[in-house]
Specification:
- This protein is α+β, with helices and mostly antiparallel strands.
- The chain has three domains: about 180 residues, no CATH class; about 140 residues, Methane Monooxygenase Hydroxylase, Chain G, domain 1 (Up-down Bundle), CATH 1.20.58; about 70 residues.
- It is about 55% helix and about 15% strand.
- The protein is built from nine helices and ten strands.
- It has a ten-stranded mixed beta sheet, covered by helices on one side.
- The chain is rod-shaped.
């Protein structure tokens, strides 16, 4: 058998990832129990303050940490257990307080009563979830007596049999005295099943509320989107009526400003909408894990969540899609307007090139005219040189009259000059000048 020292070099995150895989297991629960579950939204800077606050509890109430890590701690004080869990944007505190069978029935009791006075209020962050769960045996409280006492015309109660009919769960998801309340009647759950059921109820309540954090954002975005969509519709109409470059530039500036505002809204809300979608998925998963069955006359968890939670989640998804669609429409309209501007610039460039070609043609014609005049001028000055030369030599050599020689030289000089200019043009054309 190979020892660990014989293995390959270990990745530094291996142990941490494996610990995360096994983190936050449900606690095995037995007998009657009161549970208080609280979740607070935190800043990342509050994490150390929360750990210090837990350490302060250990100074006030004797006990020991059964589990201790950076994101998960369990403090066993004997008379109660406190479970602390650090999540991405919230922290949860769950207090488990065992009570004797039959004790406190019909009396206002809660788990947090065993905590030191003022300790609960000193928790850093803002409370977003607070739930009270009362776990009893069906021998202590008859489930039929609970359902019989519910008024058909009163508040709507969720009643469900969970864990393959091994327990009853009652709740209305309303806040009374600051807490959402659950009643769980054990009809045959094992200790592990009891712990898992309580943990799932805490998670359902926590993720249900956190999923709804996206609804106010969606409503705010919805009001702004209506104005932005109307503005885009008006700008699209103006694009069709734009006739000048100034109009197109003005519309393009408006589109760029509106696109900037949309992208800012998308960046500001993407995390919230994505988190709401993820929390909703967790709620659906935890409800599915309850393995519930319907109690006649009452809605189960799944039906209640589909009716009450699904519409807000659809609203968040719709607002996210509308933002994306508005961003895409803005991009298409901006591209359309830029294409129009580019086509107009190409048309102007074509006109400019045509005008340049016309000017070049005129310059060529003018150059050819100048070349013709140059031949005449060179022929004139060349004939004058021949005339002066003949006049100077007629006293030394017998020559024809100077005027005759000058007249005869004019065609020769003109022909030589024209051939020379033609040859020069060919050389320049061959050189690409």
């Amino acid at each position: 058998m190979h020892k660990s020292t014989d293995l390959l070099a270990e990745h530094p995150l291996r142990q941490r990832l494996n610990d995360e895989f096994h983190a936050r297991p449900p606690l095995p629960l037995q007998g009657s129990m009161l549970v208080t579950h609280i979740a607070v939204l935190h800043d990342h800077a509050d994490a150390q303050a929360e750990r210090d606050h837990l350490a302060a509890l250990a100074q006030l109430v004797p006990g020991q940490f059964a589990e201790h890590s950076d994101a998960h701690q369990i403090y066993d004080a004997g008379s109660f257990l406190l479970r602390w869990e650090l999540h991405t944007e919230f922290t949860s505190y769950t207090v488990f307080r065992p009570v004797p069978t039959g004790a406190g029935l019909g009396q206002p009791m809660s788990a947090q009563e065993v905590l030191p006075p003022g300790w609960l209020k000193g928790i850093p962050g803002k409370m977003i979830v607070a739930a009270q769960i009362e776990l009893r045996s069906q021998d202590e409280i008859d489930p039929q007596s609970v359902t019989a006492g519910l008024s058909p015309s009163g508040k709507q109660m969720v009643v469900s049999r969970v864990a393959d009919d091994s327990a009853w769960v009652f709740t209305d998801f309303l806040i009374e005295d600051g807490y959402t309340r659950f009643l769980v009647l054990n009809a045959g759950l094992t200790q592990r099943q009891t712990g898992r059921t309580i943990q799932r109820l805490c998670e359902i309540e926590t993720y249900r509320v956190l999923a709804l954090l996206g609804l106010p954002v969606a409503r705010e975005v919805g009001r702004w989107l209506r104005g932005a969509e109307d503005e885009l519709a008006n700008l699209t109409e103006e694009i069709g009526h734009a006739t000048t470059a100034q109009d197109e530039q003005r519309i393009l500036n408006h589109l760029s400003r509106l696109a900037t505002e949309v992208e800012h809204s998308v960046a500001r809300t993407t995390f919230r909408f994505a988190a709401s979608k993820a929390y909703h998925g967790l709620v659906q998963q935890r409800v599915e894990e309850l393995r519930e069955s319907r109690v006649k006359g009452f809605p189960p968890f799944r039906e209640f969540m589909d009716r009450r939670l699904l519409p807000p989640m659809d609203t968040c998804s719709a607002m996210a899609r509308r933002q994306d669609e508005l961003s895409q429409r803005l991009s298409r309209n901006s591209q359309l307007l830029r294409t129009r501007v580019e086509v107009e610039l190409e048309r102007q460039n074509q006109e400019l090139l045509s005008q340049m070609n016309q000017r070049a043609t005129l310059q060529l014609r003018l150059q050819e005219t100048v070349e013709g005049l140059s031949v005449v001028a060179i022929s004139y000055y060349g004939s004058q040189l021949v005339l002066h030369l003949a006049e100077g030599l007629e006293h030394l050599v017998h020559l024809p009259p100077p005027a005759l020689l000058s007249a005869l030289s004019i065609p020769v000089i003109a022909l030589v000059t024209a051939l020379g200019l033609r040859r020069l043009r060919r050389r320049l054309a061959a050189a690409g000048v």
